[in-house]
Amino acid sequence: MAHAIQVHKFGGPEVLQYAEVQVGEPGAGQIKLKQTAIGINYIDVYHRTGLYPNTFPFIPGSEGAGEVIAVGAGVTDLKVGDRVAYAGIIGGYASERLFPADRCVKIPDGISDKTAAAMMLQGMTAQYLLRKTYKVDKDTTLLWHAAAGGVGLIAMQWAKHLGATVIGTAGGAEKCALAKAAGATHVIDYKADKFVDRVRDITGGRMCDVVYDGIGKDTFPASLDCLKPLGLFVTFGNASGAIEAFNPGILSAKGSLYMTRPTMGTYIATRPMLLDVANDLFDVVKKGIVKINVTGSYALKDAAEAHRDLEGRKTTGSIILVP
Ligand code: NDP
Q: In order of start, what are the domains of the chain with their CATH numbers?
């Protein structure tokens, strides 16, 4: 019998209920996946609280890895026994699930299921943010908030590899040390210091080409003050809450700034786009350029505890559930 975490009402971690579920057999174009590891991401919190709405009951979780145990009609490029991983379609907190075959990727040899489950969503996000939303290179100075988090630690390594000057913020000395070890050129403890002042000092007043902000409410609008004229503000998450409505005039007042609110779905919308982003990620992981830091593993039934740790800012790097 399969098990899953179900949500019947929005709320705190306690609404994550462990239950038996019927998965059924794959339909046309689908596979049935026996999951061996499930990624935990901040978006799971938004789904649980209702910041990103869903209809009830739903199974949260947007990332996982495992073994194909059945294939539906018309699936030709996957077979029973293949190891696959995915990111981006809700329903992940489950021991088994059905999934569209064309939204999975095969896990390359040398990458474990646990690593794959931990890296697909956070790693593909780091990929598109650093390589597509803004094309980071050796001439780029960037600011990245929550640099010791899941997306953050991947981004530190990747941005360093691209040759950028990387300024990472994190809450506390320990997290700052992790971000620095991962590749940040400079780190700022934004619990202790005003990050805008520190960015001004570090850059000699030149400020940044691009700011990556997954914090949202608490770092807005200060993040805009870390940009050069014509700089790009990438607001890609809301760990502290969503940014409230504002007058776009603030972008002109602060130097004709650009702003984007990207989501991974747009960047992996088609099969070729998904393969392009995933293969770039696999490449840097296989070459050892990016190491995936799986720092916590929880039993599927303990998803609530994992959420408490994530929201309580107790985690670093990537964390997973194991069915
Ligand atoms: P993290 O592991 O980075 O966890 C969130 C971190 O945010 C915390 O560890 C904490 O780090 C920091 N933080 C700051 N303020 C708060 C607060 N009030 N409450 C909780 N945490 C806070 O999570 P992920 O790596 O999973 O995701 C990082 C961000 O990226 C999230 O905003 C997520 O939604 C976003 N994201 C966006 C995607 C997209 O395509 N748009 C895709 C994937 C992720 P510290 O203690 O150092 O401040």
A: 2-120+267-322 (3.90.180.10), 138-261 (3.40.50.720)
